[in-house]
Task: structure prediction
Amino acid sequence: MENQTIMYMLVLSGLSDHQNHQLPLFLVFLLVYLMTLTGNLLIVLLICTDSHLQTPMYFFLGTLACLDMGYSSVTIPRMLFDLYTQKWLISIQACITQIFFILCFVLSEISLLAVMSYDRYVAICRPLHYTQIMHWKTCVLLVLGLVMISVVHALVHIILLLKLTFCSLNPLQSFFCDLPQLLLVSCSDTSINVLLILILAIFLGGGIFALTFCPYIIILNTIMKMQSKAMRSKAFSTCSSHLTAVFIFYVTSLFSYFHPNAKDKSALDKVAFIFYTVLTPLVNPLIYSLRNKIMKISLKRAICRLIQI
Result:
């Protein structure tokens, strides 16, 4: 067997090969990161301070904002550091750690989107039993449950990753540590890792996908049967923000990972990764604040209180 040098540092391909682009990209993504933190933190503060927003729907929305802040903080600061130093180097340990948190936050977010679909189903299709079904204990247990499942899911992947060795000099074709890309630079047998990804994607991912979209079949059927135009408009309004966030998340993530050739990542794929990892956490608070009348009213009340002070 040929001697292979074990690698302890990995190379990321980065966003651009041109050094003149590094500083402008650093400033742009720094601004995006600050806007992401500000927007999501504002939503969390509004929900915590305004009694009108202390309902299950906004509890889940506040949780989503926290996940978005965590998710963006796993990828963007490291990218900003690499843009500033222009090295695009990362240790194996740091790479695996980043993958762990990415897997945790991604699965937590898609699971939460499924829970929010169920919340909308109960609110529209079983409004008289809403407070009994979606009481605070249930909401907290649902969030804790999905976080625990996400952590266990990530740990399974990480345990298998720790058994691999890396000896390829090829750079990871991304600006962050991505699980499929990391497997490509391993000189170990990764068939079990790939099989695990496929099995979990089919059963876990497919199940969550079904739980996210199936309630909307019943919801749309219920809305169409409503006699009042005002009630139909209100029901559509409460669902539109959530559906928009779900659509953006799934479209960008599916486009990023279901590429016909994982070894040939084009500039278009990097743009998809930017939407998936950077812009989605930024867009979510804008969707839920601009399309939600109660959130806008709460924001106006908060601004008025600040002006009076």
